[in-house]
Amino acid sequence: MNSALNAHLVLSLMVFAQLPSSFTKGTIQVIGSSHPIVALVGDDVILPCYLNSSISASDETVEWTKYKLDPRFVYVWRDGGELESKKNPSYKGRTTVSISKLKHGDISLNLSKVKLSDKGKYRCLLPDMGETSVELIVGAVSLPGIVSVQKAKTGVALQCESAGWYPEPELLWLDGEGKLLSAGPTETLRGPDDLYTVSSRVTVEKRHSNNITCRVQQRNTNQSRETHVYISDYFFTAPPNPAVCVSLLTLFVISLICVLLVILVCWIQRREKLRIQTNHAVAQMEQD
């Protein structure tokens, strides 16, 4: 009787001892980020992934993979160590998971020297616990530049250009008060490296003030770069009217001809007078 009771008690204790572990695993969740992670080319970035309990994950299998990547693994942790041989060659030397944080349930991926090709959706998987996904948006930016300043009929024509953007940005012109200026359509070119070049022209009138801003921005990556230009009053000076120029030139030519005619007449009269005087002197000498 006692031996049967003892056996039942031992069995009950074994079942009870297993319940917390089963129950704990059943409530553990793998959590990522509900919002995309944004990084610029060349940056280091962290793709978040952690357990909702600070238990150690160092004894678990951890797999970081990227959708539509072959081989798909960007990081694998198994049997207490990293499996470098599983990693996609394009990610070698660029992905790590902090071992110290792994012991506290943080399995976030550290990705260094971000490339444009790194953009996309990643999966953080613990086979015994669950999985989550994280989207990475990669951006590239550069400073815009004013490449042309020319006089125009109604003001000054400016051209702004910026190369090396991703994703496709928009280009805006602003006056000295920060108000948008009406400009021509933005010209957009996409190079073989998938980077965008944008260019735009605007004609600025004197009433817009002399301080003009060219701004290039990308809303998805929340990036913006701008350059400023001060336009001298000289550029706003109205060019001479062609009709007036022609009239002034004609008047000048006529005046010059008149002056030459006067000089010629005076010369002829002086010469005639000198001839008469000479003839008179010769006649006087002959009479003597």
Summary?
This protein is α+β, with helices and mostly antiparallel strands. It is 26% helix and 34% strand.
Descriptive report:
This protein is α+β, with helices and mostly antiparallel strands. It has 2 domains: 26-138, Immunoglobulins (Immunoglobulin-like, Sandwich); 145-235, Immunoglobulin-like. It has 3 helices and 18 strands. It has helices spanning 2-27, 99-102, 242-287, and strands at 30-31, 37-40, 45-47, 50-51, 62-66, 73-78, 81-82, 95-96, 109-111, 120-126, 130-139, 145-152, 155-165, 170-174, 187-190, 196-204, 211-218, 223-230. Strands 2-11-10-5-6-7 form a 6-stranded mixed β-sheet, with no helix packed on it. The protein has a 4-stranded antiparallel β-sheet with strand order 12-13-16-15, with no helix packed on it. The chain is rod-shaped, with a radius of gyration of 43 Å. The N and C termini lie far apart (189 Å). Mean pLDDT is 85; it is low at 4-24. Residues 20-135, 144-232 form the Ig-like domain. The chain crosses the membrane at residues 246-268.
Q: Which helices and strands appear, and what pairs or packs with what?
A:
Blueprint: H1 2-27, E1 30-31, E2 37-40, E3 45-47, E4 50-51, E5 62-66, E6 73-78, E7 81-82, E8 95-96, H2 99-102, E9 109-111, E10 120-126, E11 130-139, E12 145-152, E13 155-165, E14 170-174, E15 187-190, E16 196-204, E17 211-218, E18 223-230, H3 242-287
Parallel strand pairs: 2-11
Antiparallel strand pairs: 1-4, 3-9, 5-6, 5-10, 6-7, 8-9, 10-11, 12-13, 13-16, 14-17, 15-16, 17-18
What is the helical fraction, as a range of percent?
A: 25-40%
Which class best fits the helix and strand makeup?
Answer: alpha+beta
Strand content: 25-35%
What's the rounded overall pLDDT mean? Answer: 85
Tally of extended strands? 18
Main location: membrane
Signal peptide: 1-24
Keywords: Disulfide bond, Glycoprotein, Immunoglobulin domain, Membrane, Signal, Transmembrane, Transmembrane helix
Protein name: Butyrophilin subfamily 1 member A1
